[in-house]
Amino acid sequence: MLFLCGILISTSMVWMIKTLGQEYNAFQILLARSSVMAVCLSPFLLLRFWRAGGFTAAKAGGGEGASAWKLASRSLFAFGGQAFGIAAIVSLPLAQSQALSFTKGFIVLGLAVAVLREDVGIRRWVAMLIGFVGVLIAVQPGAGFEPAAFYAIASAVCFAVATIVLKQLTREADNLTLMGMGALAQSAMAVPFAVIWWVQPSLHDLGIMLCLGLVALVLQNTMLAAYRIGDVSVLSPLDYFRLLTGGILGFFAFGEVPTKAILIGAGLIIIANVIASQRPTNRAETKT
Predict the structure, then answer these.
(1) Which strand (E) or helix (H) includes residue 20?
(2) Do 129 and 256 meet the contact criterion of CB atoms below 8 Å apart?
(3) Residue 202 DSSP code
(4) pLDDT tens digits, 147-203
(5) Please, what is the Cα angle at 242 between 172 and 247, to 5 degrees?
């Protein structure tokens, strides 16, 4: 439920990004998003710094904090995923950009098995295969492959790696550390690129940028809570619902009419979600 709420929140972010993307580059949008989060979280980080007498990546429930290299690598890959993802949302129809971003699920699934040693099972592999077929249909490769589609694929790869690192970090650090350090690092990385292509924003657009950062803060807290209590291989397939919410947003907000192929692909993706999200019944528990 937390993850599905996050999907609805992320859909509102897509609207803001698509709207801002008509005037501003991806790095300036990313800077606005991250800097608002950093400003909101910095007082809490400074308070922790003052109380601890130095920086500490606190673990929820106590224990040793997260390693610096994991925090840095998560921030780096998340930065790449967000930058490429914003560029894809701005350059492509929402249905296509969302569909291509779902390749992240297949990358995460493989990494969950190889790195986290999670038990995926044949049923989830079959579900992911059905979802992959649905994505291919929704993308309509026969209609021509847009060069900008590589933005979405690059974003999926970066986010897949960031997701695996994040799952490990949720066991080692609390939400304040993950969100605060991530926002500060990504703001610093975005500054030089945003300055190069800087466009002076209007007051109206500044308001949207402020809302973008605040909504992103709520979204990250929701997703971190979901990943903290759930398996990556279970949560990742649920991300397919963004195809449905993105198609609805594209139709009502930007006049993008979903094709028959997109509707068929979305149907297969939803079926895959239902199969993958069901946990096997424990026979011993059933008997008792």
Answers:
(1) helix 2-20
(2) no
(3) P
(4) 787 898 899 889 989 988 887 787 788 878 888 889 999 999 999 999 999 999 999
(5) 160
